Structure prediction request, 231 residues.
Amino acid sequence: MRRWYHHEIALSRQDPSLRKGSRANQKARTRAALLQAAIDLFREGKSPSMPEAADRALVSVATAYRYFSSAEDRWWEATLADAFVQTLDETIERTKAAGSEPQARLEAAVRSTGFAMIDDPAPFRRVAQIALEQWFRRRAAPDDQQIPIRPGRRSELIREVLSPLVGTLSEHDCDRMANALGLVIGTEAMIALTDAAGLDAPAAKAALLDASRWLLAGALAELTDASTSNP
Prediction:
């Protein structure tokens, strides 16, 4: 057993690929721990703090800065991490399960993601804040240093809501409808209803359902009439 142990130690010392692989795995684990810490802080509505994230990830602040040049970079990447869009994945599954009627699918989507934002607004408000800050940094940066903007996650959900209409309406009309539904699916709708309109949670949920239902019903009526009158 002792000779086997020494043989393994000698082999690991002689094989750079083993040492390199071990270091790469450790770096990947550290980076993942820092991102998870950022996601957890997001969900608690906390402000971006590299020391707090480092403390939760059980690494030093100096180590954290070796993986992310700034707290903003780390927080931005956290908003793009797969673990943070779990709510969207669940919403898409519920939308699919709602059946083949676009109205039923839209209501399922609103009840899932929209209601979640109203019930627990802090992490979603933080994402909106970071997105706005990212936009300003992108706007002020030279062309060769532009920072990518946040991808439109809601577009994937809206496409799922409207998928039964594919082939029934033109692609152009489906795109127009999808663009309009962007007003009722997303953080901005929650902020408008609770902050600008001053509604409490139950009233905000009812208004969100009303707005989404009326918007889709009006769009379908107008576009369906147009398609039948202009075959």
